[in-house]
Structure formats: structure tokens, C-alpha cells
């Protein structure tokens, strides 16, 4: 059923997966819509918008995928930033 859209594929009878690279990590997100030709095209357009936002540097993972559990992808990587101090009490 894949209509030839890069990074987009039917995942099940009721969902579509889109894949992209963000902060050097391969990300795959599932969209809960039936994988019809029209929905695959919409998913490809959404992926294109995500790739454009990543290229511009203004991609907001929280806004795009608010229910996503992997919070490590939500914090931009900044190699020049100092390490985040631990909040645990080591004593």
C-alpha cells in the first residue's frame, strides 16, 4: 500500500509510521490513522514539514508529538552546555 513516500509506511491496519533523523537519532513515530493513499500522502507532507523544521532549527518535539514518552528527544542537545547537575541527594 506504500505509495512511494520516503520515510512513511503503513504500520498496521490502523496506523502509519513516519521516520526521520533528529539530533543524530533515528526517530519513528506512529500516527493513528488508517493507511489509505490519502492518509499516507498527508503523513508524507507532515514528515516533510518536520524535516524542514529540523533543518531550520525550530523543530519542537513536544508540539509535534505531545504524547511521546521519550523525553530525552525533547531536550535539544547542546555540546557546549555544561552538564545538568544531579537533583539526587547523594548523602
From TrEMBL:
InterPro entries listed in its UniProt record: Min27-like_integrase_DNA_bind
Chain residue ranges for the region called Disordered: 69-91
Domain (Min27-like integrase DNA-binding) ranges: 7-67
Full protein name: Min27-like integrase DNA-binding domain-containing protein
Domain of life: Bacteria
